[in-house]
Amino acid sequence: xxxxxxxxxxxxxxxxxxxxxxxxxxxxxxxxxxxxxxxxxxxxxxxxxxxxxxxxxxxxxxxxxxxxxxxxxxxxxxxxxxxxxxxxxxxxxxxxxxxxxxxxxxxxxxxxxxxxxxxxxxxxxxxxxxxxxxxxxxxxxxxxxxxxxxxxxxxxxxxxxxxxxxxxxxxxxxxxxxxxxxxxxxxxxxxxxxxxxxxxxxxxxxxxxxxxxxxxxxxxxxxxxx
Length: 226
Known about the structure:
Blueprint: H1 2-80, H2 89-109, H3 112-130, H4 142-154, H5 158-165, H6 179-193, H7 196-210, H8 216-224
């Protein structure tokens, strides 16, 4: 009778040992899963935070560009007039001298995407006002042609500006660093000439080439002034 009792004790003890082993293994598995889950959650939070920061920075940059373009357009309109009533060269020069400090401030505060074009406009103003240097009749590179066009715009000479810009149109695509400055000058020439129809065509061509990659909002605001 003693032998069956011993067997029963052993049979009861073995499941108890297996249960304890299972519980220990389960606890270790949960610890391992928790250890893996923690860095995953941290990584997801980091990605979300970076996305929010990038979105905020993009919105800030867009707002800065729009404010800069609005201020620059307002300044040019003050100098060049509304394009309907022609101004004498003497009057244009007078207005440029009175507002030169404001343009210098715009260059200093310009967003990186607009700094080169704004600095080019400042250079043409200074050249027109100094009278010590003669601007070349021709330029050998796109930036030089754009500066000559901007100089003509500053002097109220829309057709002279278009003459400088026309050879660049075919190459004024997103891959060119001067393309944005070209289209800004082209649309400014349209505004100075009071040619709303051509300005709308130029804006449509700009949008087709850049397909949302450029800042069409500032150009649309400029066209509204024509």
